[in-house]
Amino acid sequence: TGSSRPQRMLKAVQKNATKGDPKSVISAIDSYCRHKEWAMNVGDDKGLILDSVLTEVNPSTALELGTYCGYSSVRIARLLSPDSKLITIEFNPAFAIIARQIIAYAGLQDKVTLVEGASGDLIPKMKEQFGIKSFDFVFLDHWKDRYVPDTKLLEDCGLLKKGTVLLADNVICPGAPEYLQYVRNNPRYESRYYPSNLEYTKVEDGLEKSVFLG
Length: 214
Ligand SMILES: O=C(NCCCCc1cc2ccncc2s1)c1cc(-c2ccc(F)cc2)cc(O)c1O
Ligand SMILES: [Mg+2]
What we know:
By secondary structure, the protein is of the alpha/beta class. It contains 10 helices and 7 strands. Strand 2, helix 5 and strand 3 form a beta-alpha-beta unit.
């Protein structure tokens, strides 16, 4: 049978990027997805907003929900301080296998722990399994109807602390209306919308940044 889109994306990285150079891995994926075939990475436009929020937060412990092929894992991990860690959760084993290879190609495997499974099952296990006290930064980029239940789960599991920053992708396209409603009308969050566009297109999309107030 033929290759999959994630497999072709990995091939493009192996062909066009330099091993151990995260920036070249990011560029190789963006170029492939812009000129060859679209894929649901956060992309270069929204990626610049992700970079700026990350630089501001400088998290010691970061969580990503929805790894896909590892593009945003590489974007996040490349900006982490030496002893900081990213835990990224992916549901689809076919995506996870590609993501591991792309993260390793970027030389970031020591900063990233990829865990396979459903966010709803894994979030309650974070403390015991990974010795996490709380997250400083959470990037939400998985099923859009899981943003609210998983945010509530993170709260209930005591995984958010005063100042934790949640950054949610796709709040316009495909859209996460319940999530916007939840964080914008909740006194425990201070939210701000960053307008941008859907990866590799002119379609409107954006990121919602919400600071947990404790
Ligand atoms: O669905 C999207 N992303 C989630 C994939 C779901 C994978 C999951 C990960 C995981 C981990 C743990 N537990 C449960 C889950 S489920 C997504 C879709 C589009 C899009 C936009 C316009 C289109 F026309 C078509 C697609 C753009 C994006 O940036 C996306 O992120
Ligand atoms: Mg997304």
